[in-house]
Design goal:
The chain is an alpha+beta fold. It contains ten helices and 17 strands. A hairpin with a 7-residue loop joins strand 11 (321-325) and strand 12 (333-334).
């Protein structure tokens, strides 16, 4: 899953700390593995002598996984819903609990925004903090210069925490790093049962992890592809559910849900009477007879009784594709006419539905077992602009889950996301 690995002491040719499982003995040339005891000895070396000062653990600005061309954050093909991830998360929780018991790391009263080339006393604090969790090699833990090693380590830490990956230790990154080892251990421990209770064994499945705003396409127990997403705002949360994708709509119309008509659409129309025409929207009564907007009074609640439908096109809220699965929440997966949202470090913008980046590749994977629907056919259907509904020859299970902390890989990558909907209790390793 998106994140970074726990790093050991070796450096690669570019000067980056190598993952433990990839660090090679200079003499034998064989891969080394690191025992739990060795991991603790190495990662606690920088933290064991420091007093564990509880940080001010406030909610920072919603920061979630963003693509960055200079850093690959996809280090494992283990699905988040897998026995391997479950076991790794359980073990990582124990490691963080041990770190907390041994002193963890102190919160730093950051006063500077640190970036490549900076020389500052707080860079020394940053180096020690990054080394404590293995993002920076212990060999590079000393010094007050923000060099390329620190830049790479900050990027790894940002990726593990689902923040914008830019290598700058600004307020958001600093606040994430100030969360104590005990709190992090508690987050990992709290998610162990969430992962365990949601485990599935479908041959093909789609998994949407809402807190990371990410989607996994899983085949035979491995992640085949990952897609970034936009999910529901805190006050219009994306529901957690399991269903099966059965249909793809190319160039769909969008019938606006009543809740969005009331909360969003009507207030806009009252301010801008031309909005309906500009956005290609039409109004229908209960028998689907079209109504002239000029005959309606939008100042009151009269218009709430009608249906508002947006025609296909570049302005359609669903974009070029809608993906359907049975559910009681009127939610679906779909494209978006605002692709720029995927580059935003905060990807909680929707009213509950999930918007998908790179929708053509996603749909081609879904329809792979449906005769006549290869990548070229999908691209042609999208570009044609014509409405077309395609049923999957074999429905694909879809699972919406809520996992805010997990680990993966043989080196126990620890990943953390904000509990944006407030669904998990706050606890630390000290709570037991």
């Amino acid at each position: 899953m998106i994140g970074t690995r726990v790093y050991g002491g070796a450096l690669d040719a570019a000067g980056f700390a190598q993952p433990i499982s990839e660090a090679r003995g200079a003499e034998t040339g064989k891969k080394r593995t690191m025992s739990r005891r060795a991991f603790l000895g190495r990662t606690m070396g920088a933290a064991a002598s420091l007093a564990c000062v509880p940080p001010a653990f406030g909610a920072w600005e919603d920061g979630f996984d963003t693509d960055n061309a200079t850093l690959s954050t996809r280090f494992t093909d283990d699905p988040i819903l897998s026995q391997r991830t479950l076991a790794a998360t359980h073990e990582a929780a124990a490691l963080y609990e041990a770190m907390a018991t041994s002193g963890g790391w102190p919160a730093v009263p950051w006063s500077a925004r640190l970036s490549l080339g900076t020389r500052h006393p707080q860079v020394a604090d940053l180096r020690r903090r990054l080394a404590a969790t293995g993002d920076l090699s212990q060999q590079m833990a000393d010094g007050d210069v923000f060099d390329s090693y620190v830049d790479a380590a900050v990027r790894r830490a940002q990726a593990r925490h689902g923040l914008g990956v830019d290598g700058v230790a600004g307020p958001t990154t600093q606040e994430a790093l100030n969360v104590s080892a005990g709190v992090r251990a508690g987050q990992l421990r709290a998610n162990v049962p969430r992962i365990g209770d949601a485990l599935v064994s479908d041959a093909r499945q789609v998994t949407v992890n809402v807190p990371s705003a990410g989607i996994e396409l899983v085949e035979d127990g491995r992640v085949a592809f990952r897609h970034t997403a936009v999910v529901g705002k805190a006050d219009r949360s994306t529901p957690l559910l399991s269903s099966a994708i059965h249909e793809v709509n190319f160039n769909p119309t969008w019938t606006v849900p009543r809740s969005i008509v009331r909360k969003d659409l009507l207030p806009i129309i009252r301010k801008d009477p031309n909005y309906l025409r500009e956005m290609g929207m039409r109004i229908f009564d209960g028998s689907w007879n079209e109504i002239d907007p000029a005959t309606l009074d939008f100042t009151g609640s009269e218009a709430e009784a009608y249906f508002f439908r947006q025609d296909p096109g570049s302005r359609n809220a669903l974009g070029r594709v809608r993906i359907n699965f049975a559910n009681d929440h009127q939610v679906y997966l779909h494209d978006t006419p605002q692709p720029g949202l995927f580059g935003d470090a905060s990807r909680f913008h929707s009213s509950g539905c999930v918007r998908i980046q790179n929708i053509p590749a996603f749909v081609a994977w879904l329809l792979r077992e449906t005769p006549g629907w290869d990548e070229r056919a999908v691209a042609s259907a999208i570009s044609s602009g014509d409405r077309r509904n395609v049923s999957l020859s074999r429905p694909v299970p879809v699972h919406f889950v809520y996992v805010t902390a997990w680990a993966g890989g043989t080196d126990l990558t620890a990943n953390f996301r904000q509990d944006i909907y407030g669904l998990l209790p706050t606890r630390t390793a000290a709570d037991g």
